[in-house]
Structure formats: structure tokens, C-alpha cells
Amino acid sequence: MPLLEITNLGICFGGLHALAGFNFVLDSGELVALIGPNGAGKTTAFNLVAGIYAPDAGRIVLDGRSLAGLDPAAINHAGLARTFQNIRLFQNLTVLDNVIVALNNSAEHGLLTTLLRGPRFHRESRKSHARGMELLATLRLDQYASRLAGGLPYGDQRRLEIARALATSPRILLLDEPAAGMNPREKVELMELIRFIRDRFKVGIWLIEHDMNLVMKISQRITVLDHGEMLAVGSPDEIQANPKVIEAYLGAPA
Amino acid sequence: MIHLFTQFPHLAEFVQQLINGLSLGAIYALIAVGYTMVYGVLRLINFAHGDIYMIGAMTGIYAMTQRPDWSGAGLSMVILLALSGLVLLGAASQRWRGRKCEYLVVIALLLAEVAVLGLVPWRHGEPCPPSWLTFVMVLGGAMLASGLLGYQIEFIAYRPLRNQPRINALITAIGVSMFLEFGGQRYFGATPQAFPQLIPGLEQHPDLFKFGPLVIPKVDTLILCVALLMMFALRHIVMKTRVGMALRAVSHRFDTAALMGVDVNRIVSFTFVLGSILAGTGGILVAMRSPKVDPIMGLLPGLKAFVAAVLGGIGSIPGAVAGAFLLGITEVMVAGYFPHGSQYRDGVAFVILIGVLLVKPSGLFGSNASEKV
Amino acid sequence: MELPAPIIACRASAGVWAAVLRSNWLWPLLLLTLLPLGALVENENCVNPYFAHIILLCGINITLAVSLQLINGISGQFSLGHAGFMAIGAYLGGFATLTYSVLPADVSGDPFRSPGGVLWFGLALLVVALLAAGALWLLFILIRSSRRIHPAMPPIFMLLVILWFVIDRAIGYQLEHPAWYLLWTRGWSGLPRLLDFVIHAGMSPAARVSTWLPHSWCKPLCLLTALLIAGTFAGLSGLLVGLPTLRLRGDYLAIATLGFGEIIRVGILNTEPLGAATGLSVSIYPNAADSGAGLSAHYIFPWIFGAAVAATMVIWRLAKSAKGRAIRAVRDDEIAAAAIGIDTTHHKVIAFVIGAFFAGVAGALYAHLDGYLNTNEFAFTRSIELVVIVTIAGLGNIWWTVAVAIGLTWLPEILRDPTLFAIGKNSHKAGLFVQYCKQLGEFRMVIYSVLLIAIMLARANWPPLRAMCQRWLALVRNHPPNGAC
């Protein structure tokens, strides 16, 4: 029984089928990529799974639970975390706070505990602080712990966003163009990081990416989208040889 | 027709309220269009817009009844005027050398205004006799004054905050509005003043048509005509001229328009001036209708015109006009037909506002510009 | 050698208890400072009543400003309707004390005798309000579920309901006794009657309970109950404002809150029992010479001080906690916050509710201090004054808010009449300065607005301004003294 199973997902934006007939499976520990030309509907698929849009057709099942009609926070509690194409960090919070706030501890504190500051409050604070620093150390961001998130260099901001998503203890991680704007050295480091995350945190990773090098090297399976429809699914070698994919990217021979 | 209205007095009352509502709506439209244009271009709610409308009305009073007493002016006024002239010359020389000079022009304007308005005693003089020529000239004067004021406000208070989060500009707008209101109370006096007659023979023959119990006053028709004329002029400017096209471009994408060679500062100033001119006209028209004018008359109509703009879809000019007429008619109907209606009159606009914001925040004609995730 | 587990646990928990002590040590200190300050205000020869009044106003403004800081600064929802919450608190608290703290059997009509009565009024009002809200909620659910018939049904249905309301009220207004089918009119007049019925039903037992209490407890209990009622209803109205405006951002939210504030004000203006246009006189001592006066300064001072301290402490602790972090995260980026599992609705609404609660408490204190309420006090202008305080202090800074609130309460008073503050009593030159200050005082609101604009502009252009200043300073310093190279 796969961890994430999507059948026949589709959505219409005022007559335009942004996504139609989308099928997908993901298991724990797998690293799968979603590629396609610009405007193919990749981020739309992510937004549908993460609960930002409501699908017009299809089912999304995570670990046996249907994610239909849930809002993004509930989907996150069910075990799915995502990053964003345009980095969305909490600019006015410190790096450590960005991670701690994702540890879902605010829901555990009632209003009274917060106001009375008893021993339980302090115990919880220390625990979250320790866990946050641990996570930052794992992703080599601990030297920035008390800096404001907006002041980090670009590559570190992306890593912080991934750290924040990991702090929610997800089973599935959705990465939306994590290598955008990076130079080749940073991309290699990112590749190592993604593999490391999959092995260390035991999550299934679903990746949207444009850099074919990166995609071919780390993914076990690739799904290709074009104009909202699935073109092909398969291993990297199969996709590279698929004529329909080549036509979508390079155009048909004259 | 007269027969129809005498037979059905309720119908006559309904049509009378409708006409009242249309006339009120026309005034709201003049103010609302200014709000919506500024929002479309800068994404800023210009809280001070209602006070520009007040300045228009005040200018009308000053033009009609006050005369400057040059003999009472002191040396300081002459010095300030001379200084203003020098700064203007400096601006001209900078321009000749191709450098920026706008701030010098604004400083010169400010000095001249302080000199003429502050240091010259204005005394109650001979009121001008009402005539069509007087009407046109007073209207022109109000348009000039409000346009100038709008330009200065934009330059001093809003342009430096262009790159800041919009909340800061909103707070500054509130500050400007407070400045105009309280400053107006100190300068013009807080007591309401009577607006003199502009149109000849209005007191003797106030009505244009009389259909039995239905009465169509001249003032209302004049207001509607002037407002519609200005709407058509505005539509021509926005749709059919190059400046209008640049305006529309800037309201869609600020930075892209700048990249395409549009002088964004000039267009924003132009938008403010255009909106302010319309608001000033509205001030004169409303003063003709209800002749008591006081410095805080702009607060409530400004808010209501803003509600009208939101109702029609903020950023859309036809929407603002439609929303304004709808609001005017609704307000008059509530005041006329509801129990204790006249007390709830001011609340109508806010109830409509809450309703629109809850049901369809983009308004009647607005588009749902949602955030890209 | 590793320490045995129980000792490690002991050390850890000792650390926790140390932290608890550290975060709570300030309390006894604050309570100790209360006593001498209270004596200061209490002793008439020490502080004259004018100053005492200003100090009390400072306390009220601190409570208001800090509660607004929670809504505007920490939770990032720009609210321009704070005066509406204050008005609800003021009118409800004042009305409760005025009408229901009097024992029914008491001929002299002295207030502050029946805390049970005040409590009962609060409960009755709550029950009736919940009933009405429940009925409206059912209607709303009905309208929403009509979506199943056809997607376009809800707006049409809502329009029909509004039309039904309008026609019903128009007909009902003209009839002496509205017919049974005029539901809205009957409901509109039926609710106050239901409230009266419930209140009368429970008033005598409540009054009897109050007579069992020791006499010295009655007044403080009455005041406390009135404050809590005021705060609760203001908090409920905060819920009413916060829930529908969840989808709105920035300027739209500002205008919506402005609208709510005005609607509340117009609503109170048209409610007969609350004095309508002539104002509510919360005459605490109806048989005294100045029946319009509120409570004496020395009595109300600890309450105002307590409210200010409570507000500041609660909001400070909220801001520095995990919940506060979540609220700030929602402020910074709502979509990202939702994506990491934060319940954005809960966190946004709780800021409104707590902020509104303290605004209501401040309003009730204001009513009891001043003794006379007029809806003009709670107009848009007051909201703006509070926004000015919060803006000058900076969004998110709680202690600066306290300081600016105190400063901006004193500033207009100093400007109004500097001689009161022993400035310029002695020399002639100082006399001119005083004259100048007095003239300036008349321009006080104009100065406020210019100050606001100047601060916003300076903040926006601070880096270039600072760079410019540094360049000029450098030029001045580096200028060689005799023009030598």
C-alpha cells in the first residue's frame, strides 16, 4: 500500500484544464521527480495535494486517509510538508524561530499555560529549543541561529525552508524547484542534501525541478507533465529515450 | 405625466427619492473616481481625498466672499514671495541644465502659499453677483486649487513612501487627512459657513420641472450634468489619449511600465491631480446643494465614496461610478423609507461595505487578483 | 563517570523551577510599588485632582494602546476600529453598574450594593445574545446549504432574506401591534422584552445573595464583575469582527474594521436604554452634589493600574511564547504558516479577542472614571489616536508603546497650559515661552498630524537620511582649519 496515492486528479481554471487525469504513487523512502515545460501544471499539482486548491476531480489518499477538502494545516498534520517555489520564510523571525514555530508546539500550549509560565511552559520551551538547534545543526545552519531569516544568503534560505518543513515531522516532503537560482556547486551540495534527508529522516520526497542533470542523477522515477496531462512515467533512462518527452521539450522534427 | 403622478403620489415620491439619490450619487461618483484611480495606480487608499473635496468647497467660498487685503500684508510676505521667486528661478536653471528640479518647484509653491494664505489678511469683501460666468470661474478656481493641493500631497507625503509596505502609506494618508481637517478648523474656523449663490435666479425659481407632486430641482440637474460631463471627459482622457494609456499601464504593472519608458512619477502625479480636480468639483457642487460648509465636511462623504469605490470594484473607474450611484440611491431610499431611517443613514454605507467585503471583496466590476503560491 | 539518572532529572527540573522563578519575580515587586503610588494619588494634598486625572487617563491609554499593539503590531492585522470595542465595554460596564448594581429594595438607590445583580445582568445578556446569534447562525447555515440545490443559490437566497427583512420592518413600523407573521419585527422587539423578562426573573434571588456578602466586599465585587462583563462582551465583539475579516488583508481589513467601529457607534447611538444621543450618565453617587462624577481617583487608581499591568503582562507573555511566535509567523506569511500546520484562523482570532477584551475593560474603567459617556468620545478620532501611539512606538514593541502612551497623554495637557506645570511662573522670558506654548496648544491636533507624517517619512528614509548626516558630519570634521592641504 503506497504512502501517497493520487488517482485521476484534475482541476479547471475557468475553462482551462490546468491538470487532468493525473495519477501518481509514492512510497516512504522513494525519491520521485515531476518535470515538464513551463506552465505544464507541476506547481498546480503540488498546490492541489497541499490543499491550496480544491480539486475538481480525482482522489488524494495519504496513508489510507483521503485528503479531500482538508485545509493546508490539516494536511500538514496528516504528514505532508512542502516548500515553495518563491521562498516563503518568516522574514521577521530568527532562523531558530522559523524552525521552532514548525515544531507544532503552539497547539499543545493552552492559553493559560502561556500566561502563567509554570514549569511545564519552561520545560516545553527548552525541549523545543533543543530540538530546533539539533535540526539546524543537522542541516548545517546552526551558526545562523539568532539571525533574522531575511538576512541569510539565498542557498541557506532554501535550506532553512527545507529545515522548517522537516521540523513538522512529515512522512512526505514536497520540494518545489529547490535548485532554482543556484550555481552548479550549490546544486551538487543540494543533491547530497536531498539524498541525506531521505536516508536520515526516512521521508518520501517528491521533487519538481528544471535542472535535468540533478533530476536524472537523484530520482528513482520521473513523471513528465505537459499542458496538464501526463506524458510519461518511468526511470530516468526510459524518460530520456521517450520520443514524446523529447518532442515536448525540443519540438517535433521538421 | 402630471396626471400619472397626481394619481399615484407614492410613485411620485419614489421618483423624487430616485432623483435625490442620483444627484447624491453623482457627487459620490466624482470623489469615488479619484479614490479608485489612485488605488489602481499606487494601491493606496488616499484618506485625504475627502479633505481635498472640502478644500474645493472652501476655495469656492473664498473666491466668492473673501478678498486679500494687500495693504495689511507685512514685509515678511514680500520676503517670502521674493524667496519663492528665487527658488523658482533656481528650479528653472536646474531644468535648463537637465537636472531634477521638481522638489524646488514644490518648495517654491509652498513658500508662495504660506505667503499668500498665511501672511496676507483675507477680509470679508463684496460677494460676486451670481451668474454663469461666476459659476464657471469659481469652478475653475476650485479645480485649480484642489489639483495643486493633490499634486503637493503626493509629492511630499506619498512619493517618499513608494517602496514601503502599504500600511505605512496608509498611516501617512491618515496623517495628511488629519492635518487638512484640523488645520482647516484652525484656518477657516470650525463653524460652518454659508456658501453663497452661484447660479442666477436660483432662489426665485429653484425648480426645473414640476410634474404635479414631483419636483425636479435645477440644482440636482446641474449637478448631474456637470458630473456626467466630467465623467465623459475623464473617460476620453483615460481611454483615448496617450497619457491615459500610460495611466492604465502603470495601474496594471508599475515596474514593467517604468521599463517600457513611462515616466512613472509624472503619471502618478497626473493621476493625483486628475482625481483631486474631480473631488474639488464635487465640493463646489455639493456646496451648491446644501449651503453649509465646514472643515470636517470631507470626512464622512470621503468614507462613503470609498465604500462606493469598493462596491464597484476598487481600481475600476466604471465600477466606481456604478457603485457611487448605487450607494447614493440606497442611502436616500433607506433615509426615506426605513423607520428611523434618517438616523441610520450614515450606517448604510458601512453595512454595504461589510457586506461587500464579506461576500465579494473584489466588488461588482473588479477582478479577483489572487496571490500566486 | 556519568551521574545516575535521578540526579540528572533533578538538576534539569531544578533548572526549570529556576526559570519559573525568574520569569515571575517581578510580580511581588510590582505589587509593592502599587502601594506608594496609590498613596500618592490618594492623598489630595500631594497630587492635585487635575494631575490625578491625567495619571488615571495614562493608565487607561496604556491598556488601550497595548491591546491595539497586539492586534496591529504582533498579529499584523491593521485595525482602525479599536474605539468600537472600547465603546462596547464602556457602555455595557457603565450601564450594568448604573442600573443593576442597585439593590431593588433599596430606596436610596446607592450603586455598588449588588454584585449578584450585575452578574445576573451579564449572564442574562449573554444568554439572550447567544440565542440571537444562534438563530442567525442557523439561517446562515441554511443559506450556505442551499448551495447543494444550485451553486448560484446562496447569493440569491441571501438577497431574498434581506428583502424579507426590509419589507417586514417597513410594514411592522406602520402597525401598532405587529402581526404574528412579521417575524423580524417581532424578533427585533421581542429580544429586549425577553432580556427584561430573564433579568426580572433572576434579580431578586441575585439581590438576596448579594445581601449575604460582607458589606465591604460589595463595591469591589461590583466593579470587578462590571469590568469582566465589559471585557467579555468586547471580546465577543472582537470575535464577531475577527471571524468574517479573516480573508481580508492590509487596507481592506483596515477599512472593514473602521466600518465595524462606526456601525457599533451608530448602533449605540440609536439604542434607547444606553442614553442615545444625550449620553449615558454613569452617576455613581446619584444623590451627591455632582451627580455626573464617577468614582473618586484614589478608589479607582488600583483598578486602572491593575488593568494596565495585567494587559501589559498578558500581551508581553503572549508575544514571547510559542503562541506569540505562531501569531507572528501568521503575520509574516499566512500561506507558509498554514503549510507548516499552524491554525491561522485560531491565531488571528485570538489576537482580536484578547485585544478587544482589554479594550473593553479599559472602556469600562473610563466610564467609571468619567461618569458621563457620549458616543463622540468613541468615534474614529479615538481609534486614530491609538493607532498613532502604536505607530510611533513601532509595530511589535510593547514597552515603547507604554512609554509613548504615557508621553502622548501628557503632551497635550502640557501644551494646553504649561503654567500648571510650574513652567514659566517666574521670569518674563519664560512667560513669552508660555504664551507660545499656549498658542501651540491650540494647534495641538495639527501638530499631532504633522508629527505623524514626519515620523513616517523619517522612518522610511532613515538610511539615506543617516547617510546624509554622516556625510555632512564627516565634511565638517575633515575640513582643514586654515584651508591648508
Looking at CATH, the homologous superfamily of the largest domain in chain A is: P-loop containing nucleotide triphosphate hydrolases
Radius of gyration of chain C (CA) equals 27 Å
Oligomer classification: heterotrimer
Task: Characterize the biggest β-sheet of chain C.
Answer: 2 strands, antiparallel
Biggest sheet record of chain A: 6 strands, mixed
First-residue to last-residue Cα separation of chain A: 45 Å
Q: Under CATH, the topology of the largest domain in chain A is which?
A: Rossmann fold
**Which runs of chain A of at least 5 residues are low in confidence (pLDDT < 50)?**
none
Approximate helicity band of chain C: over 70%
Q: Which structural class fits the helix and strand makeup of chain A?
A: alpha/beta
Poorly predicted residue ranges of chain C: 286-292, 480-485
Which band does the percent of strand residues of chain A land in? 15-25%
Describe the structure.
The complex is a heterotrimer of chains A (254), B (373) and C (485). With 254 residues, chain A is of the alpha/beta class. In chain A, helix 7 links the parallel strand 7 and strand 8. The longest helix of chain A has 20 residues. By secondary structure, chain B is mainly α. Chain C has 485 residues and is mostly helical. Chain C has one domain. Chain C is built from 18 helices and 2 strands. In chain C, strands 1-2 form a two-stranded antiparallel sheet. Chains in contact: A-B, A-C, B-C. The interface between A and B is small, with 5 and 2 residues.
Labels describing this entry:
heterotrimer, A: 254 residues, alpha/beta, Rossmann fold, 2 domains, six-stranded mixed sheet, B: 373 residues, mainly alpha, two-stranded antiparallel sheet, two-stranded antiparallel ribbon, 14 helices
SSE inventory with pairings:
The complex is a heterotrimer of chains A (254), B (373) and C (485).
Chain A: E1 4-13, E2 16-26, E3 31-35, H1 42-50, E4 57-62, E5 65-66, H2 72-78, E6 80-82, H3 95-100, H4 111-116, H5 119-138, H6 154-167, E7 172-176, H7 184-201, E8 204-208, H8 212-218, E9 221-226, E10 229-234, H9 236-241, H10 243-250
Parallel strand pairs in A: 3-8, 3-9, 6-7, 7-8
Antiparallel strand pairs in A: 1-2, 1-4, 4-5, 9-10
Chain B: H1 2-7, H2 9-42, H3 49-65, E1 66-68, H4 75-96, H5 102-119, E2 122-124, H6 132-158, H7 166-188, E3 193-194, E4 207-211, E5 214-217, H8 218-240, H9 242-252, H10 254-259, H11 264-289, E6 292-293, H12 299-312, H13 317-337, H14 341-359
Antiparallel strand pairs in B: 1-2, 3-6, 4-5
Chain C: H1 5-24, H2 26-42, H3 49-74, H4 82-100, H5 115-145, H6 153-174, H7 183-212, H8 215-242, H9 250-269, E1 280-281, H10 297-319, H11 322-332, H12 334-339, H13 344-370, E2 372-373, H14 380-393, H15 398-416, H16 428-442, H17 444-460, H18 462-478
Antiparallel strand pairs in C: 1-2
Helix pairs in contact in C: 2-10, 3-10, 3-13, 3-14, 3-15, 4-5, 4-8, 4-9, 4-13, 5-7, 5-8, 6-7, 8-13, 10-13, 11-13, 14-15, 15-16
